[in-house]
Design a protein that fits this description.
Blueprint (H helix, E strand, L loop, with lengths): L6 E7 L5 H14 L4 E5 L5 H11 L8 H25 L3 E5 L2 H11 L4 H12 L6 E6 L2 H10 L11 H17 L4 E5 L4 H16 L6 H13 L4
Parallel strand pairs: 1-3, 1-4, 2-3, 4-5
Helix pairs in contact: 2-3, 3-5, 4-5, 4-7, 6-7, 8-9
């Protein structure tokens, strides 16, 4: 595999922790600072990947086994890596991906109970040496997550797996962060959006060469808080 030229950052976290809001803000901030940014999501990002996503999330597909689910996520990942991510990195872009291999280990490993060692080997096979330069894991305290899960209505087949499943996934993510502290930065989202965003910027500042205290960053954070209230 040829060495990449760009920067690859992934974002992880359980459903409902505010990940999508933070990823969109971060992408917009980097673009405003002059970076060539490509924002992706998993599963998806390619024609085949989006078709797989629809199949995986469709509540009608209740008969889909955990093993089939795992293989479908891996298939979608293979497509996006080879069709989109590697070419973008070779072009020197900053690639931001909403979910990647850690989600498979958390959801299908810790959540579904599939052997973690097998999932790690399968991910290594599919990724073929591609590892994120930095991974931001968004999380909330367990008690807060329980409250949100009690209020939240399931929107797709994965969310229909229930509260216990969701808590196992959240625990799995934190285990991953503890195992790989250099790559994975755990950021609590149980506060102002700007506070969370500031942590993300600081965690990636060395990698990107962005000054977290710059005027442009401060202005963007003020605008973010103006649009949102504390969770």
């Amino acid at each position: 595999m040829e060495s990449k030229k760009g920067i690859f950052i992934t974002f992880e976290g359980s459903d409902g922790v505010g990940k999508s809001t933070q990823v969109a803000f971060f992408a917009g901030l980097l673009e405003s600072l002059g970076f060539d940014v490509l924002l992706l999501r998993e599963p998806g990002g390619t024609k085949i990947g989006e078709e797989i996503r629809e199949m995986l999330l469709d509540v009608k597909n209740k008969e889909l086994t955990s093993e089939s689910e795992l293989l479908l996520y891996l298939a979608a990942r293979s497509q996006i890596i080879n069709e989109v991510i590697r070419p973008a990195l070779e072009e020197g872009k900053v690639v931001l991906c909403d979910r990647f291999s850690d989600s498979t280990l958390a959801y299908q490993g810790y959540g579904r109970g599939i052997d973690a060692a097998f999932i790690k080997h399968a991910n290594e096979f599919v990724c073929d040496g591609l590892v994120p330069d930095k991974t931001i894991l968004f999380y909330i305290p367990e008690e807060e997550q329980k409250k949100r899960l009690d209020r939240r209505k399931a929107k797709d087949r994965i969310e229909e797996a229930g509260k216990d499943f969701a808590l196992r996934v959240a625990h799995g993510f934190l285990e991953i962060a503890q195992e790989e502290p250099k790559r994975v930065e755990a950021v609590c989202t149980n506060g102002l959006h700007s506070e969370t965003a500031r942590h993300v910027i600081k965690a990636t500042s060395d990698l990107l060469g962005v000054d977290p205290e710059s005027e442009k960053v401060a202005t963007a954070l003020e605008a973010l808080d103006a649009m949102h209230v504390k969770k």
